[in-house]
Amino acid sequence: MNSKLKLQTIVIIALTVSIGFILDKNMPSSSFQPTSSDDLTIILMIGDGMGFEQVRMAQYTEVGKNANLTMEGLPLNLSVMTHNVNLGITDSAAAATAIATGVKTFNGRIAIAPNGSSIKTILEIALEMGKATGVVTTTSIQHATPASFMTHVYSRNNYDEITNQIVENTNVDVLLGGGMKYFSEEQIQNMTADSYSFVTNKSALSSISSGRILGLFSDSNMPYEKERNLTDNTPSIADMTRKAIEILDQNSSGFFLMVEGGRIDHESHDNDKVGAILETIAFDLAIKEAKHYVETHANSILIITADHETGGPTIIGNYLDSNLPTSGLSEEQNRTLRITRANQIDVTWSTGGHTRNHVPFFSFGEVFENITSNLLIDNTDIYGIMNNFLHEEEIVLFDRTPVNMLPYYTLYILLVPITITLIYLIVKTKRSIKREEKNR
Ligand SMILES: [Zn+2]
C-alpha cells in the first residue's frame, strides 16, 4: 500500500469511528402481532407545558415522594426533545404539529409544513382507516394543540378559520372542551343537523350513551382546577376522558383519541405552583381512566407526553407533613388537602415562558414490550410510533443526540480525523528527514 492510500484509509477509519460514536448507541425496536387487525386503538394524552418537574411536584403532592403518579408508573419512560424547525424553543402549535404529523414547522402553524403545504395528521389517518376519533381538552377546542390534529391553518390565532374547518370538514366523533363563543348559532345547528348531540354541562354529557357529541362547557378555556366550582355541573378532564372512551369504543374498527391537559401551561406561565400542581394532578386522574381501558384492551396503546415545558420550575425543598388525598373523601376535601401539600413544597421558576427542556414520554401497551426505557427521542418520533402501530409496522426508536450537544459533536467529528492526520504527517516527515540524514 502506498503512503497516499494509507493516509486515506486512516482518515476514513477516523471519520467512521467518530460518526459511529455520535450516532445511535442502540436501536430498540418492537414488532407487534395484533390479535385482530381491525380494532387498533391509540389514546394520546398531552400535558401542555408539563415538564419532568411539574410531574414531580404533582407526585409529591398527590402520592408523596415514595410512590408514583399513574403516568410515572407506566412501564416505558422516555425523554423527548421539543425544538421547532429552526432548532428554537417551540410553541404549542409547532410542537403539536410535530406530534400529529411527524413534521417540524415554524411556531404558530397548525398542521402546515414550513413550505406552506398542509400535512396529513395522525387523526386524519385514523379517520381514513375507518376508526372513530375524539378530541378532549381543558382549553378552547380551537386552541393550538387540539387544532393541530383536526385542522390546517397558517396562524394558531385564526380561531374563525379553525372553527370553520372543525364544523365543515373534520368529522371528529367526540369533541369535548371549551370555546363556545367562537361558534356561531348557525355552526352549532349545522353540527346538530349532522347528527351531533350538543351538550353544555356534566349531567347532559353523562346522559349520552352513543353517537357523536359536541360538548362545549365554557366560552373559552375551561376553569382552572383551583377555581373549578365542584358543584356547578362542569365536567373534569377525567369525566370527559371517561365519556369519550365509552362512546368511541363502540366503533368496531378501534379509535384515536387525543386528550389535552391544556392549562398546566397557563399556570406555569404564571409561575403558579399550586395551580400547576392541581392541573397536573387532574390530568393524571384522566390518565387513570385511559390506563384502565388499555389494560383491558390488548390492541390499544396509551402515550402520555408534553408539547414543551413551561416556566422551568425546580423543587428546592419541602416540608410535607399533611395527609394525602384519598378516594374516601369528597372532591372539595381532596382539593383542600392538595392545596395544603402543594404549599409545603418550595419551588423556584426560571422563566415565565417556554423552555427547551426535554419532556416526559410515558407509555403502555404490548407494542412497547421490547423497547428499553431512558432513550431520548424527538417529538416527531411520536408520530412515527403511532403511524407504524396503526399500519402494523415495526417500531424502531433511536437514542437521539441532544440538540444542544450538536455543535460539540460536530467539532469532535472534525477534530478526530484532523488530529490523526496531523500525527501521521509529523511521523512521516520525521521518518523522511531521518532517511535523508542516513543517505547523506
Ligand atoms: Zn404556553
Mind explaining what this structure looks like?
With 440 residues, this protein is of the alpha/beta class. The chain folds into two domains: 3-21 and 406-439; 28-400, Alkaline Phosphatase, subunit A (3-Layer(aba) Sandwich), CATH 3.40.720. It contains 14 helices and 16 strands. It has helices spanning 3-22, 52-62, 92-101, 122-128, 144-150, 159-169, 185-193, 202-207, 237-248, 264-269, 273-295, 331-342, 379-390, 406-439; strands spanning 29-30, 41-47, 76-81, 132-140, 174-178, 196-199, 212-216, 255-261, 300-305, 309-310, 314-318, 345-348, 354-355, 359-364, 376-378, 395-396. A ten-stranded mixed sheet has the order 6-7-5-4-8-2-9-14-3-15, with helices on both faces. α8 links the parallel β6 and β7 (212-216). α2 (52-62) packs across α11 and α3 packs parallel to α5 (144-150). The structure holds zinc ion. Zinc ion (ZN) is lined by residues 49, 92, 265, 269, 310, 354.
Features:
two-stranded antiparallel sheet; 440 residues; 16 strands; ten-stranded mixed β-sheet; Alkaline Phosphatase, subunit A; 41% helix; 2 domains; single chain; binds zinc ion; alpha/beta
Instruction: Please state the overall shape, judged from the principal axes of the Cα atoms.
Output: globular
CATH topology of the largest domain: Alkaline Phosphatase, subunit A
Mean pLDDT: 91
Structural class: alpha/beta
CATH class of the largest domain: Alpha Beta
The hetero molecules present are:
zinc ion
> Mind telling me the CATH superfamily name of the largest domain?
Alkaline Phosphatase, subunit A
Helix content: 40-55%
